[in-house]
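Researcher: I'd like a structural prediction for the single chain below. Treat it as a standalone chain; there are no partners to consider.
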Amino acid sequence: MEKEYDVIVVGSGPGGATVAREMSLKKRKVLLIERGGNWQFLGNTIGMAMILKNFGLTLSKEMNVVVIPKNFGGASVISCGAAVPPPQAVFDEVGIDLTKETKEAKVDMGVNVLPDDLIGKTNLRLLEAANDLGYHWIKTEKFVKPDRCVPECADCMLGCPRQAKWTAREFGEEALRNGADLVLHTNVTEIIRESGKAVGVKATSFGRKSQYFGKRIILSGGTGNVGILRRAGIDEAGRSFAVDFLQFVGGVIPGMNTTHEQPMAVGTLEHYESDGIILLPVFPNWAMQSVMALLKGPQYLPRMRDAFRFTGIMVKIKDELRGEIYPDNPIFPFSKTPTEQDKKRLDKGVDIIKMVLKKAGASKDSILAFKPSGAHPSASCRIGVVVDKNLETRIKNLYCCDASVLPSSLGLPLVWTAVALGKRLSKHLEGNLQKS
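Model: Treating it as a single chain, here is the predicted structure.
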């Protein structure tokens, strides 16, 4: 390809799509490259599987499940729509202020608290039960459009068929309307360099090789960044990382369940600063429940008779930076297991959840806690290790912008943070391009 772009963005998740959108608004020539497709039939189990790498069955060497997206819009398409702003304390440690970009993202994503009829009676019962126990649960913010959302719907994690939930596809599609180019089913393999600077990428698509040239290259492919960077000589990428380990706990409450409830519409961050945990009502659908029950042990499969009766709550933690990503291993692409501290945090969250479920009406015998799984890989190309404060690697004009740059595990929903980082990087890129 002889066309030269101002910006090439590799990956169309929240970070990458934000950069593509912001730069297209500045009339820059933008190319957005996505290794997956653009699956449109959302709101069902098949759709969720098609959006994920290995149909959602990506396992670590230790047989822990970790969710890795592979589709236009990235993980935002199957996120719960939970809106938690970037924790400034984490970014203070690396000298980054996201205050302005966080406010901009809140407006663009339509962050709000949903009305009670969309939150649902089960969520409100859990909130009441938790507060009766002395905890401090609240109605949480979501990036969900109330006028498009419907009561008794829990399709967020299956991909919202009504487009009520904000996803990175909105920014990606806006970039296309502004003149950006998009190539799908294209896997970037290497960085093209001239005089030590990044000037383009090499890629393959169904066995066909191609090259694309650009003045600035932004890697926003999550774990996929690691292989590209190592092949470029940045060997420290992926030597440790976070996954924000989570654990689902479900119980049967007569007359209630979270099968048809807005996920993460209530919950608490009251334990976040002290213990690195958050608690939010959400539970996997019947298909993922079956996989998790099998991984816990075949003896738990009969419990799937309650798959549509469970009321579920999730504990998510700030996990320690451990493990390694193996970009050239297609079977087990990483090694990551909870540390002793991670286990203590998970156990504390599970104990609280069990108390809340019992208070809400679940019997002790009905409660089931699945094994820990990884929510979202992050911090594999960290600020201060792989990229600088401007998210640039030591290869000039080569940047990263997604959850991989986080300085540590957040233990929080990441979408709002990724969008804020994308906005901040876009401002830097525009100033940088104007000078060149």
